[in-house]
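Support request from a user on the community tier.

User writes: "When I paste my structure tokens into the form, the page sometimes reloads and wipes my input. The last time it worked, I copied everything first. Here is what I submitted, just in case something in the input itself triggers the reload:"
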């Protein structure tokens, strides 16, 4: 009979446990020195090795010839434990045996000596499912158990275990297994089983397993049933993913405000039997990758992705604002929550993509933040607000100030390669509405230059970006350490175009007319006395 991979490749010694070196080393040292605790509590997410370590510990304490803290695997007790026929090892699932009577049976049985081994070991899985009465019944025995009894409790939700139980156990925390180690283990299993798996496919399976080795092996089993050569396409089809190509297409729809194309893509995925909740989760994870690339100095430390895919995501993140990315994640998280209570998951997904393409339709705080940032960019760039419809038009337009040669002072810029797309030449300077995004991009490369340019604005005049600031040190800073190149690179990553750089002196505020009352002279004395007497004063 075929045995599934996660059962066939369950670790039999501590050395075979993947991704938990701290736990396995401590348990081996206790077994080697004979300093065993009477109760252990294993805490961690699913598939991280809690039950496997509990079984290895139970075999090791009853092994006739242990080897360096590990069970030998060949003696009669080890073979019986492996087959599940050793009477001194009892496994209980607290999810289905959670009452006080079940625990009373364990307590009564623990009074008897072991039959063939040295210890009676009780492994209680999902111990947080026990009732309060069952915990209270277990408490006294757990505090003062017989010398021949060891309890091993395992749980995924430590916060549900009473503090009185926690304080009487030796606690071990199992962390999520790193994706690289899961991928390496999958490739080892593939070699031993006689099939192949691409490194990119192994990384994808590891990412989908979310730190659980059992989930990764189960997914691998599902992929092998389709083909003995496991590729990214095989994984995508077996698991029901939409794939990164569709994620980039949905991102393009969001950037271009193309609601129709986004809805058509969702309809295509729905017709190909893609689950809408999984699509929502996949898209949220994609925007998380964009968020990491936008904020982290080295995204490769946080994202387990092939180099080519990571570079593509970095390029996309440079063209998005952080507020837009956070808004997308928030919309998708809310949509996923409503999918569990709504009548139609497809409708929820369609509503989500409409809000992503048209944020003005979303009245949530994250959408308002995204829209306010766009307005701030417009105001910061010097864009004037349109007059209200009820306001009467002014009789005469203000005179256009004459440009003076001293108004613009070119800053030295390094030699540049010609732009692929020449910027449009306008008649006069226009506000640079994306200046705040340029500064945000610049902050990741040069905090000093970012701080120097904070509070500045910019205008676009032909093929030049004119920076307006009252900081006198900006000109000198631009001439040091290739700062001008860094700023131009940030402008290019945001706009996709190459510009020259210049400095523009800020407009001097108009001088306020002196107050006649504060001036010196007979007229001023007369006005002050009149004001003190309460008489009306007319400056004209």
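"...and here is what came back when it finally went through:"
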């Amino acid at each position: 009979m075929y045995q599934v991979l996660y059962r066939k490749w369950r670790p039999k010694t501590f050395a075979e446990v993947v991704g938990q070196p701290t736990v396995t080393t401590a348990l081996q040292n206790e077994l080697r020195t004979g300093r065993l605790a009477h109760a252990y509590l294993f805490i961690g997410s699913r598939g991280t090795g809690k039950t496997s370590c509990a079984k290895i510990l139970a075999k090791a304490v009853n092994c006739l010839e242990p080897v360096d803290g590990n069970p030998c695997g060949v003696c009669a007790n080890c073979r019986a434990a492996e087959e599940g026929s050793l009477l001194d090892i009892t496994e209980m699932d607290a999810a289905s045996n959670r009452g006080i009577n079940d625990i009373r049976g364990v307590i009564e049985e623990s009074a008897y000596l072991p039959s063939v081994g040295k210890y009676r070991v009780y492994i209680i899985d999902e111990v947080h499912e026990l009732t309060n009465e069952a915990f209270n019944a277990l408490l006294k025995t757990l505090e003062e158990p017989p010398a021949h009894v060891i309890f091993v409790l395992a749980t995924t939700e430590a916060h549900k275990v009473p503090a009185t139980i926690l304080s009487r156990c030796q606690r071990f925390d199992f962390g999520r297994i790193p994706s690289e180690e899961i991928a390496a283990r999958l490739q080892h299993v593939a070699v031993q089983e006689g099939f192949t798996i691409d490194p990119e496919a192994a990384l994808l399976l590891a990412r989908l397993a979310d730190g659980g080795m059992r989930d990764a092996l189960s997914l691998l089993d599902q992929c092998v049933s389709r083909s003995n050569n496991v590729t990214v396409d095989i994984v995508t089809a077996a698991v029901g993913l939409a794939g990164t190509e569709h994620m980039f297409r949905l991102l393009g729809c969001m950037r271009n405000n193309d609601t129709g194309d986004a809805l058509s893509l969702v309809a295509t995925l729905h017709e190909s039997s893609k689950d809408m909740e999984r699509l929502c989760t996949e898209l949220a994870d994609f925007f998380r990758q964009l968020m990491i690339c936008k904020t982290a100095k080295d995204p490769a430390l946080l994202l387990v992705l092939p180099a080519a895919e990571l570079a593509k995501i970095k390029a996309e993140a440079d063209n998005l604002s952080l507020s837009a990315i956070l808004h997308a994640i928030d919309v998708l998280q809310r949509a996923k929550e409503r999918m569990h209570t709504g009548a139609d998951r497809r409708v929820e997904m369609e509503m989500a993509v409409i809000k992503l393409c048209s944020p003005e339709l979303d009245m949530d705080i994250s959408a308002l933040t995204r829209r306010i940032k766009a307005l701030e960019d417009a105001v910061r760039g010097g864009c004037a607000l349109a007059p209200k419809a009820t306001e009467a038009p002014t009789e005469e337009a203000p005179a256009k100030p004459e440009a003076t040669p001293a108004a613009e002072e070119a800053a030295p810029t390094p030699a540049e390669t010609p732009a692929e797309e020449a910027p449009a030449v306008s008649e006069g300077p226009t506000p640079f509405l994306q200046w705040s995004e340029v500064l945000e991009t610049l902050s990741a490369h040069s905090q000093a230059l970012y701080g120097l340019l904070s509070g500045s604005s910019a205008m676009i005049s032909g093929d030049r970006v004119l920076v307006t600031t009252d900081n006198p040190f900006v000109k000198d800073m631009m001439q040091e350490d290739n700062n001008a190149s860094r700023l131009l690179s940030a402008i290019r990553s945001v706009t996709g175009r190459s510009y020259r750089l210049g400095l523009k002196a800020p407009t001097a505020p108009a001088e306020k007319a002196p107050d006649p009352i504060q001036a010196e002279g007979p007229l001023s004395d007369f006005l002050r006395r009149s004001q003190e007497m309460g008489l009306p004063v007319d400056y004209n």
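Agent notes: The reload is a front-end session timeout and is unrelated to the input. The chain has four domains: 5-174, 179-239, 246-370, 407-504. The radius of gyration is 35 Å. Escalated to web team.
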